[in-house]
Every structure is written in C-alpha cells, then in structure tokens.
C-alpha cells in the first residue's frame, strides 16, 4: 500500500521544497512536514517569522547557519548546524534566517500548523517593531 505523495515546489531562489500535511506528536503537535533541498552554497532561506506556528529544524545533510531573533531580547543568535545536531525548536514570533554553507544540504522542517500566508511576518522592521 503506497502512502500520500509529496508536493514539490520550486522556489524563486533555486531550492526545492517538498511537503506533506499530517498530524503526529513531537515537542508540539506536527501538522506539516517539509524538506528544504537542492540549496546553493551562500543561499539564504527563511527571512520571516510566524505569528502562531512552531517549527522544528532537522539537518539531514550538509551544513548551514541558523540566525534567530526573538521579540523578547531582539538580539540575533547565530548557530552552525550540521546533520549531527538535534532538532532546533523555533517558537512563534522568532525571526529566522538560514544560510546554506554546503551544496546539497537537506533540512527537514516540522511545523505545528498547515501553511497559511496570513501566519507569516515577512518584514524584518515590522517584526522588530512588534510588542509582546
């Protein structure tokens, strides 16, 4: 018996995203899983925050840097991640930027919500001006 098929989308920056929506358990209820793949060295992904969605990042292959900024202290935190790192939990209202350091890096992302454009904050200045 075959399972559901992944939907694959090509981004404007060249990488691909494959997703499937489902409900499971994790540090938060997982409703969606997607994979960032085929990224080019130096490419930056993310550059947004979510209003309600939690995410967990798992590096499957390669190396990347993760920069996060919370509304509480508004100071960027930089981490280098590779496939040996554990899941990185990203709560809502966290600005996220991912820079790919190795070609063919693969990142599995677990999300607490299905995709909704209305959950995204895409302006960094708007994000920084928000109050908790």
Keywords:
132 residues; mainly beta; Jelly Rolls; 6-stranded antiparallel beta sheet; 5-stranded antiparallel beta sheet; 1 helix; 11 strands; 5% helix; disordered N terminus
Structure characterization notes:
- It is built from 1 helix and 11 strands; from the N terminus they run βββββββββββα.
- It is mainly beta and about 130 residues long.
- It has one helix spanning about 125-130, and strands spanning about 5-10, 15-25, 30-35, 45-50, 55-60, 65-70, 75-80, 90, 95-100, 105-110, 120.
- Residues about 1-5 have low confidence and may be disordered.
- The protein has one domain: Jelly Rolls, CATH 2.60.120.10.
- It has a 6-stranded antiparallel beta sheet, with no helix packed on it.
Proportion of residues in β-strands? over 45%
CATH class: Mainly Beta
Unreliable stretches covering 5 or more consecutive residues: 1-5
At CATH level 3, the topology is Jelly Rolls
Query: How large, in whole angstroms, is the Cα Rg?
Result: 15 Å
CATH superfamily: Jelly Rolls
Helix-strand makeup class: mainly beta
Shape: globular
Could you tell me the number of beta strands? 11
What is the spatial order of strands in the main beta sheet? Answer: 1-2-3-10-5-8
Average pLDDT, all residues: 86
Element order, helices and strands? EEEEEEEEEEEH
């Amino acid at each position: 018996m075959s399972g559901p098929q992944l939907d694959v989308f090509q981004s404007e920056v060249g990488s691909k995203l494959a997703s499937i929506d489902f409900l499971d358990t994790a540090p938060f209820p997982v409703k969606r899983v997607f994979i960032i793949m085929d990224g080019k060295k130096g490419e930056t992904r993310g550059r947004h925050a979510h209003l309600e969605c939690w995410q967990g990042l798992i590096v499957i292959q390669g190396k990347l840097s993760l920069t996060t900024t919370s509304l509480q202290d508004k100071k960027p935190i930089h981490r280098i991640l590779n496939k040996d790192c554990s899941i990185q939990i990203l709560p809502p209202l966290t600005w996220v930027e991912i820079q790919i350091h190795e070609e063919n890096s693969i990142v599995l992302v677990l999300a607490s919500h299905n995709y909704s454009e209305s959950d995204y904050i895409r302006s960094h200045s708007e994000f920084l001006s928000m109050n908790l």
